[in-house]
Amino acid sequence: MNNNNVIIKINNLKKIYSIGNIKVNALNRIDLEVKKGEFVSIMGPSGSGKSTLMNIIGCLDTPTSGLYLLDNQDVSKLRDNSLAEIRNKKIGFVFQTFNLLSKSNIIDNVDLPLIYSKNKLTKTKKELIHEVILSLGLEGRQRHKPSELSGGQRQRVAIARALVNNPAIILADEPTGNLDSHTGEEIMAIFQDLNEHGRTIFIVTHELDIAKHTKRIIYLKDGMVINEERINNPISANKVLKDMPHLEKRIEELEENTIDEKNN
Ligand code: ADP
Ligand code: MG
After folding, report:
1. Residue of 46, 52, 96 with the most ligand 1 atoms within 8 Å of its CB, for mutation
2. Of 30, 76, 84, 262, which is the most buried if we count CB atoms within 10 A?
3. Main-chain dihedrals φ then ψ at residue 17, nearest 5 degrees
4. Phi and psi (nearest 5°) for 176?
């Protein structure tokens, strides 16, 4: 069988945490195959194993048993150093709370994965960082620190950082969880655009509305995949944005109206 298109292959994967004598089956017999270019979301109640699965897929952790092939390489039994190397090369992470270095400007934040990278670069680091910052609409803000940016801008810096190493997969744990709905939609528009250009993306979300922007939803419960759904017509974030008034603009309008009312 030709597996060249498969980026994630997981077979009978288990993760058991032991706390004293108690064993927690955080993941129980997971089978999962993801092809290059897919856009997948994981949904499930708190404690269902979403983060555990993301951590294993992202090579932050290893399974107790079972198989995990990442880009045709068995990573299920790798030790910390090799795991870290693969993680840096293949995975770009985006988090709910952005996880940026607060004392560093945008350039230095985006540079971070390159410092540890062993990937061969086709451009100079400076060119690469500049390009990815521009592609996320952050021009003119290169020297700004995270505290000088809005939530949406911070998340775009985090996406720039995730992309700079040209990873095979982007993993995002609740990437819109800390954002208002307009800004969340903007972030989903970026993910959809990246996916249309061939990037494989995996997100965890609590919101079905967000999951419906992806092409495939995997439902977890008690560490097991209980359902799977293909989304034939994902919600287009750009379309939603067209019809959705911007929150700040809405507030301005409301304020103008109140002033008008007062004046009348
Ligand atoms: P979710 O992200 O869906 O909320 P998690 O993957 O964080 O779920 O957790 C799945 C289960 O594994 C839960 O029962 C949780 O309590 C348990 N668990 C997660 N991490 C640990 C850990 N480091 N030690 C012990 N139990 C853990
Ligand atoms: Mg979690």
Report:
1. 52
2. 30
3. -95, 135
4. -110, 5
Query: Is the C-beta atom of 17 inside 6 A of ligand 1?
Result: yes
- Which residues have a Cβ under 8 Å from the Cβ of 169 and sit 6 or more positions away? 7, 8, 57, 90, 91, 92, 200, 201, 202
How far, in Å, is the centroid of ligand 2 from the Cα of 50?
5
Q: Answer whether 50 contacts ligand 1 (Cβ < 6 A).
A: yes
Helix (H) or strand (E) holding 42: strand 39-43
Looking at residue 233, the DSSP 8-state letter turns out to be S
Place of tokens 């079972």: 66
Ligand at minimal distance from the CA of 24 is 1
Q: Domains plus CATH for the chain? A: 37-54+78-223+230-263 (3.40.50.300)
Q: Which residues contact 206 (CB under 8 A, 6 or more apart)?
A: 43, 174, 177
Please name which ligand lies nearest the alpha carbon of 15: 1
Give per-residue pLDDT as tens, 165-211: 999 999 999 999 999 999 999 999 999 999 999 999 999 998 999 99
Gap from CA of 88 to ligand 2 centroid (Å): 22
Per-residue pLDDT tens over the stretch 111-125: 988 887 777 777 888
CA-angle at 9, arms to 34 and 13, nearest 5°:
120
What are the angstrom distances between the C-alpha of 194 and each of 122, 136, 170, 177, 226? Answer: 20, 11, 10, 20, 28
Residue nearest to atom 7 of ligand 1 (CA): 51
